[in-house]
Every structure is written in structure tokens, then in C-alpha cells.
User: Which sequence fits this backbone?
């Protein structure tokens, strides 16, 4: 018997009824998944899937490119409070706004993917001034097709689906995604395959905008990661480059600071970045591979709580500059016809001082004997 639940748009009689075999398999391992559809306001029509795995839970949004809206361990929220108050249905996100900033109308997730055609700052045509690529791309505001939830015999739940970014005569790329969590795991793992469905070579970019606020983020919180090279994005970031890894409490009028970096990794290319609270007894770690995501961006936005007190830990294929700049500096993915670019990413919660210290020690081992190069000014070729 198959332990699968297919959320098919064609099953109009009972589209969200979970098969008995699926329910039995999930319950056996202490797992469950709940489907919700929101009504009213800008959330109207948004569909959510919430996975419960013991004390850990997370919610993904098929309506919004299978982003992760929030997660929780016990009473600890993993996410942030955005003034946007989503999740916002993509129909209310004006991606074609002439300013290029329409994407921000929907930003409130824990993890939101930026891509696929572009993933950085707005890009405008030099001659006409017309918007070429809006902020952070389109993939986060595309619906997920063919959503399936499965539970394996060894107690791993997988939510899978496909998000398509297609425009006739312009672009034809899709992303197959899997989000997995195993019974007892305090986190989840994502596997994305970016597939070129065109008959000629295509390009792509990807950035995982992983956003966290209180209670883990607060006065004295810090980022721990195995930096090999770092530079501030702009003059504003140079002001606090000496304290780039630590955070202030909520500060009214704070202007964002952004730092670009490369990280050390193990022999397989695996690396990690962690945000820990001031007391060091809770943290969230982000795991990825530098052969797939060679860069890390730290976004510090410790504004007043009402304005969105948040930081971003952002593994990426490139820096989030305008696409034309990144293309000139060879930071786009080239994908042959029918080929795919694979990315694996994990997020884990550390609930006590011992687990935080163990993760910190593991990160320190990656840079043992190496000194980081910290630039005090923006670097040519990295920053516009």
C-alpha cells in the first residue's frame, strides 16, 4: 500500500481527504500534516500545509512557491513579525511595479526563495529606464503544481511539488522541490532541482532568504559561520563592519546593513551558518554546500519591532546585485537543455546550550588554521 496523499486539483469531490494508509503511517511515527485554506483580505485563497513532528512544526505555502512561512519548537517561534502580515496571495503582489520593489508587498516568510531568472536588486534598462528584472525574482509568487505528501516506512515525511517559471518565447525553467523531515528531527531539509525545459541553454540564479526575528534575534545575538572572505555591500555597511556578526536590539530608524562573504567547508563542500541568541542556549543553523551555493549574505535589519525586526541568513549562487552586474561577473548558473541544477539546504533548531556549543565547535573546525579576510570597504567585482 502506498503511504501517499496527492493534493490533486482534479479531485473535486474530496480534494483534501487523507488516505487511511497515509494517516496510519504518519501516526505510527508521531507525524501529522494539516491542510488549511485562508479566507479574507490579502490572504484569501492561500493554502498551507503544517507538519507536526513531535515538538517541532513548520508550515509551507504551496500557493507561494513552497516557501516556509514559519516554524516552531515547543513555545519558541522560528520566524519573524513582518508588518506585511501575510502570507499574502500572489495576486496581491505587484511584481511588475515600475519601482521594481513590488516583491516586498508579500514578504513575511521564514524561508522565501529568490529566483529563478534573477534574484537580486531591481535591474533597469540603461537606455529606456524600463524595469528588466524586479527585486528577488518571481519564483516565490508562483503556485506549486502536483503537490504530494508521503511518509516512508522509516518515518520520513516528504512534501514535493513543482513550481514553473515560464513565459512563452522568453523563459522556460521549472523547479522540483522536496521538503523532508524525519521523526524526531528538530528541523527539515530542502532539495530543489532547477530544470531547463527549453531546447537551448538557459540561465538561473537562486538565493534562499532565511529570515529570523525574536526571540532568537535580540540584543547581543550573533551569527557564527566559517568566514574566509567578507566585505560590506555599501558605505552604510562599512560603518559597523567590525561588529558585523553581532546584533543590536530593536532600533527605530535603523537602516539595513548587508555583508557579502564566502565560507570554508569540509572535504565534501558542506558548510553551515548559525544564529544564536545572546545567552547561547538557543540557535538555528542553516546547512548547505558551497559547490551549489558558493556565497552567503548576511542582512541586518534591526529596525523597530513595528517596522520588522529581522535578520537574513542567505545562501546563494551569487550576490543579490542587479542581474546584469552579476552576469558580467560570471555569477549566473548555465543549464543545458533538459539538464538540472541541484541544491540541498537544511534548517535545524538547537534547543539548549549543549547543542549550540556542539554546533559552534563544528563550525570552528572548518576554519581551523585559516584567517578570514575582512574588507573594510566594498570590493570591485562583488559590489555595484
Assistant:
Amino acid at each position: 500500500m502506498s503511504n501517499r496523499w496527492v493534493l490533486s486539483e482534479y479531485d473535486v469531490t474530496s480534494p483534501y481527504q487523507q488516505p487511511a494508509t497515509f494517516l496510519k503511517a504518519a501516526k505510527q511515527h508521531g507525524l501529522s500534516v494539516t491542510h488549511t485554506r485562508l479566507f479574507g483580505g490579502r490572504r484569501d485563497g492561500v493554502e498551507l500545509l503544517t507538519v507536526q513532528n513531535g515538538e517541532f512544526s513548520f508550515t509551507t505555502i504551496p500557493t507561494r512557491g513552497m516557501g516556509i512561512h514559519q516554524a516552531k519548537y515547543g513555545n519558541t517561534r522560528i520566524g519573524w513579525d513582518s508588518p506585511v502580515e501575510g502570507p499574502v496571495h500572489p495576486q496581491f503582489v505587484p511584481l511588475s511595479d515600475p519601482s521594481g520593489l513590488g516583491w516586498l508587498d508579500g514578504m513575511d516568510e521564514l524561508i522565501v526563495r529568490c529566483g529563478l531568472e534573477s534574484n537580486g536588486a531591481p535591474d533597469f534598462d540603461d537606455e529606456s529606464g524600463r524595469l528588466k528584472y524586479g527585486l528577488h525574482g518571481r519564483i516565490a509568487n508562483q503556485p506549486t503544481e502536483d503537490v504530494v505528501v508521503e511518509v516512508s516506512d522509516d518515518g520520513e515525511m516528504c512534501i514535493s511539488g513543482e513550481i514553473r517559471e515560464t513565459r512563452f518565447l522568453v523563459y522556460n525553467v521549472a523547479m522540483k522541490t522536496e521538503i523532508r523531515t524525519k521523526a524526531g528531527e528538530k528541523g527539515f531539509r530542502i532539495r530543489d532541482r532547477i530544470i531547463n525545459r527549453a531546447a537551448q541553454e538557459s540561465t538561473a540564479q537562486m538565493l534562499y532568504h532565511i529570515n529570523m526575528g525574536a526571540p532568537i534575534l535580540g540584543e547581543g545575538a550573533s551569527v557564527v559561520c566559517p568566514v574566509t572572505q567578507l566585505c560590506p555591500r555599501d558605505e552604510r555597511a562599512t560603518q559597523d563592519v567590525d561588529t558585523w556578526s553581532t546584533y543590536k536590539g530593536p532600533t527605530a530608524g535603523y537602516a539595513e546593513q548587508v555583508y557579502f562573504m564566502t565560507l570554508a567547508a569540509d572535504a565534501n563542500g558542506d558548510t553551515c551558518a548559525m544564529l544564536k541568541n545572546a545567552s547561547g542556549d538557543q540557535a538555528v543553523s542553516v546547512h548547505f554546500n558551497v559547490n551549489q551555493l558558493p556565497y552567503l549574505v548576511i542582512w541586518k535589519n534591526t529596525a523597530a519591532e513595528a517596522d520588522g525586526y529581522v535578520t537574513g541568513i542567505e545562501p546563494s549562487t551569487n550576490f543579490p546585485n542587479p542581474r546584469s552586474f552579476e552576469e558580467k561577473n560570471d555569477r549566473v548558473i548555465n543549464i543545458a537543455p533538459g539538464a538540472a541544477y541541484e541544491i540541498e539546504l537544511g534548517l535545524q533548531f538547537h534547543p539548549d546550550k549543549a547543542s549550540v556549543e556542539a554546533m559552534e565547535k563544528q563550525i570552528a573546525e572548518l576554519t581551523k588554521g585559516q584567517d578570514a579576510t575582512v574588507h573594510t570597504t566594498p570590493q570591485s567585482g562583488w559590489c555595484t
The radius of gyration is 20 Å.
